[in-house]
Amino acid sequence: MARPREFDDEKVLLLAVEHFWDHGYEATSIRDLAQVMGLTTASIYNAFGDKRTVYRKALEFYVKQSFVDRVGRFEKKPPREAIHAFFVEIIDRSLSDTRRKGCMLVNSALEVAPHDEESQRVVADVLLQVEAFFRRCLQAGQEDGTISRYQTATDMARTLLCTLLGIRVLARTRPERDLMEGLIKPIFALLEPDVKDDKPYAAPKKDMSDEKSGA
């Protein structure tokens, strides 16, 4: 009969998150995890598996506590306000990160995901969720007239996703409010509805006359 666990999974995973976030994946050993989690190495292997598995579980826990919570709070707001509040919080969190740890998800995308298919899946899934959140907000704003329809919601959602990733990476070396807010100003200008000509975006058609004339 298996012995019941004598520790709280969430508490020890939070400790693992903090250590991985501070030191990264490669610089962390099972011994390091045992020390910070207050467990024996045998307990870690029995409860979670190897270091790679502990990391994935820690990353999933981090995502649940950060992104899922943030979307749950902001998606209740009007579309433009939801997107704006999302970026304001990201910038504030980046500037308050005095140790410049950055975002654990983005760190994982750069350090671990290229070499580990399962971690790559976790990171890609979250990025798709972020993109979907932006797209839902954009579509709702285009429907109620508070967001321009000149660009497609899909294209703008991907632009917002890239801006988010850029902010999180820049924050580790240049945590400057003017820089980060300057990144989102032109993006929000694109969202501003144009009352004069708010037509849906259409890609330019290829001019076949040049091909026929041999130009």
From TrEMBL:
Portion annotated as DNA-binding: 29-48
InterPro entries: DNA-bd_HTH_TetR-type_CS, Homeodomain-like_sf, HTH_TetR, Tet_transcr_reg_TetR-rel_C_sf, TetR_C
Transmembrane segments: none
Keyword entries, A-Z: DNA-binding, Transcription, Transcription regulation
Residues annotated as domain HTH tetR-type: 6-66
Transcription regulation in keyword set: yes
The name this protein goes by in its record: TetR/AcrR family transcriptional regulator
